[in-house]
Automatic annotation (TrEMBL):
Organism (species): Gillisia limnaea (strain DSM 15749 / LMG 21470 / R-8282)
InterPro entries noted in UniProt: Ig-like_fold (IPR013783), Ig_E-set (IPR014756), IPT_dom (IPR002909), Kelch-typ_b-propeller (IPR015915)
Repeat keyword on record: yes
Gene3D superfamilies: Immunoglobulins (2.60.40.10), Kelch-type beta propeller (2.120.10.80)
Segments forming domain IPT/TIG: 144-200, 213-276, 297-356
Keyword check for Translocase: no
Name assigned to this protein: Kelch repeat type 1-containing protein
TM helices/strands, residue ranges: none
Pfam families reported for this sequence: TIG (PF01833)
Sorted UniProt keywords: Kelch repeat, Repeat
């Protein structure tokens, strides 16, 4: 039997001619008729035609024209060349017909180019092609060619559709037993169900799967964060977006992909140093048999003699480029990382607190803890030591030092008691205890504490007309009433002790109306603890209210200045008890209130305060009584306490061999300890 030849043109090119194209020339009694049209259940069609009259068919070209139009013709039909047996023409096919479609057929014999004999037209409804059989579909890759092997396909790929889980594949070529197509890129699983449709008949294949990617090696097994590595292996996807490389469960940036290699960038942050490498490709997960180890960071150098809160550069190797991943510690204080690269970290040294001036520097990255082998030196004069959470009033003296312990009194008016905070400079730690108020009414009153160094006795003044002066016992933690201070009640006053006596003066009216006689505020009083008697001393030379002054004792003389009335004051005065006289000294460099102050080795120190006049950037001063001059000192830490944030409230505690400065940073007081050798320079 001769092979059948198919000529298929688009069905939209319909022929509406009643007769076929070309000249029809029949001899008398010559006839061609279709004698059988059989549509088998398995698909296809069997055709038979009989020729009578005239000469035999011989070797003339003959066959059948099949079309979906009512008038099959050579230009718009399938030309099925038949097999000649005597005076009959046969043709049988199992494919190439569309299921449930009406076809029209006519037989023909072409005696010559000018003489063609046609039969009448018959029609049939197709049952499609023979039921498809898929024997195997080779494994493949996304957007790669796979071969579908089976039976009863067609070489006419226009009538073939292949779907992978509903996603249509592009058919490249086909014949009766093979279909080559591209695996769709948008399938969602590696083992989709494949459906093949040929002329309306469908076959399903459930055993197809994509190749499983394999990883054979990694370009480097040890690398730094952010380094570029390459996975080698097979069956990868060549499209970056369809691949994922995970290192320690963290997705990487993929630079390039091929079937055998994927190049990617290690994450700049990882939880641990040794990590598994996973590949998600071809809709499957593959884990590398080995691991990638991140190199341990190294600290090479830091600047010498740094300051707290200073911005410095740490040079080294294998840091993370992610700022937050590099945890830099000075002692137990976490530094702020401002910039980061693999070879340097720009950090702000923590303000503290510090145990000493040589804190250990370390960097924690992933599960590494790297200690700097060199020495860190803090050159600060004042070093942050600890915090105290307390609401200590900075108006008037609320603190003192006794037996080398510092005491600060915090008012708890709701409980009518003091919370007493005790600083031990040797242990550099705080403790506390409670003391009941001597009377409830002091809730509405200012207070000032004065410590008599000579006797070790402690006295409290409250701004009331009566019951305003008490002695406090640390042993019994109780108050005993003393003889009332006889002068005008005043708040934010100055109290100090020289030798055995207590002195009280300055201040403001507690409930001023603006019409009071201010002369009594210039009166100065002395109290003798041995006799429990008050005595008025020489008036302060300038009349008027003046509250929140700076005062300190050098030798046997008191120095008083600063403070404010209606405006700030910068004048400073010396009081000499032996002669009961006042002398004006060198003016302070600007007017301010709420300062902290202390004496050290015959010189006075004044810090912070509310600036009323003068340079606000100048926050530290030293007074030399011999030269009668004020010297501007370096501030506590001008990197931390700038003009915009430096505090109004501060307190100074002068111990035997140490000085602490408590600076309000609400709700804490931050206590700094001075390097006395540097402070006195």
């Amino acid at each position: 039997m001769k092979n059948c030849k198919f000529l298929l043109l688009p069905l939209l090119l319909l022929s509406f001619a009643c007769e076929p194209e070309g000249e029809v020339s029949n001899t008398p009694n010559e006839k061609l008729e279709i004698t059988a049209v059989e549509v088998p259940e398995e698909g296809g069609v069997k055709l038979k035609a009989k020729y009578t009259g005239g000469a035999s068919i011989g070797t003339s070209e003959s066959g059948f024209l099949i079309s979906t139009t009512e008038a099959p013709n050579p230009s718009g039909s399938i030309d099925l060349q038949g097999t000649i047996a005597g005076n009959e023409i046969y043709f049988a096919t199992t494919g190439n017909l569309i299921y449930n479609t009406q076809y029209y057929v006519r037989a023909y014999i072409k005696h010559s180019e000018t003489r063609i004999l046609y039969s009448d037209i018959k029609s049939f409804v197709s049952l499609g092609s023979k039921l498809l059989e898929i024997s195997i579909i080779e494994k493949g890759l996304l957007q790669d060619t796979v071969r579908i092997s089976g039976k009863y396909f067609t070489e006419n790929s226009h009538y073939i559709s292949v779907h992978f889980d509903g996603h249509r594949a592009s058919v490249i070529r086909s014949n009766d037993s093979i279909i080559n197509c591209l695996v769709p890129a948008n399938i969602q699983r590696y083992d989709p169900v494949v459906k093949v449709d040929v002329y309306g008949k469908t076959a399903t294949y459930n055993d197809f799967a994509l190749f499983t990617p394999t990883i054979t090696s990694l370009s480097e097994n040890t690398a730094g964060l952010g380094d570029t590595l390459t996975i080698h292996g097979d069956y990868f996807d060549f499209e970056n977006s369809r691949n994922k490389v995970l290192v320690g469960e963290k997705e990487t940036i993929i630079l390039s992909s091929s079937r055998q290699a994927i190049t990617f960038v290690l994450p700049t942050s990882l939880a641990v140093s040794t990590n598994a490498v996973k590949l998600l490709s071809q809709l499957q997960e593959t884990t590398f048999s080995g691991t990638v180890k991140i190199q341990k960071p190294v600290i090479n150098s830091i600047p010498g003699n740094i300051r707290a809160y200073e911005t410095i550069e740490i040079a080294g190797e294998d840091f993370s480029k992610e700022k937050a991943e590099n945890e830099v510690f000075f002692g137990e204080n976490l530094a702020e990382v401002l910039e980061a690269s693999s070879t340097k970290l720009i950090v702000r040294v923590p303000i503290g607190p510090y145990e000493n001036r040589s804190p250990k520097l370390r960097i924690e990255l992933m599960d590494y803890i790297v200690a700097f082998e060199g020495e860190v030196k803090l050159k600060d004069v004042w070093l942050f030591k600890n915090k105290l959470t307390a609401n200590i009033n900075s108006r008037g003296s609320q603190y003192f030092v006794h037996n080398n312990l510092g005491y600060t009194f915090e008012r708890e008016d709701e409980n009518s008691r003091f919370k007493v905070h005790v600083l031990d400079p040797d242990k550099e730690s705080w403790s506390n205890f409670y003391v009941t108020y001597p009377r409830t009414a002091i809730q509405q009153e200012d207070m000032a504490i004065v410590y008599n160094k000579q006797s070790g006795r402690i006295f409290f003044y409250f701004s009331a007309e009566e019951k305003n002066f008490y002695e406090f016992s640390l042993q019994t933690k109780s108050f005993s009433l003393k003889k009332d201070y006889p002068g005008v009640a005043r708040g934010a006053s100055a109290v100090f002790s020289i030798h055995n006596n207590i002195y009280l003066g300055f201040g403001r009216f507690m409930h001023a109306t603006g019409y009071e006689d201010v002369a009594p505020l210039s009166h100065f009083w002395s109290y003798n603890p041995d006799t429990d008697e008050w005595k008025q001393m020489a008036d302060f030379p300038l009349q008027g209210s003046r509250s929140d002054v700076s005062s300190f004792i050098i030798g046997d003389k008191a120095y008083v200045g600063n403070g404010a009335s209606h405006t700030g004051n910068n004048d400073f005065w010396r009081y000499y008890p032996a002669s009961n006289t006042w002398d004006r000294m060198a003016d302070f460099p600007g007017a301010r209130t709420y300062t902290s102050f202390f004496e050290l080795d015959g010189k006075a120190y004044v810090y912070f305060g509310t600036v009323l006049t003068g340079n606000p950037d100048e926050t530290a001063f030293r007074y030399d009584p011999t030269a009668n001059e004020w010297i501007i000192l370096d501030p506590v830490n001008d990197l931390y306490y700038t003009y915009f944030i430096y505090p109004d409230a501060s307190i100074a505690l002068r111990f035997k061999d140490a000085v602490y400065l408590g600076i309000l940073s609400w709700p804490h007081y931050e206590f700094f300890k001075a390097d006395l050798s540097k402070l006195k320079m």
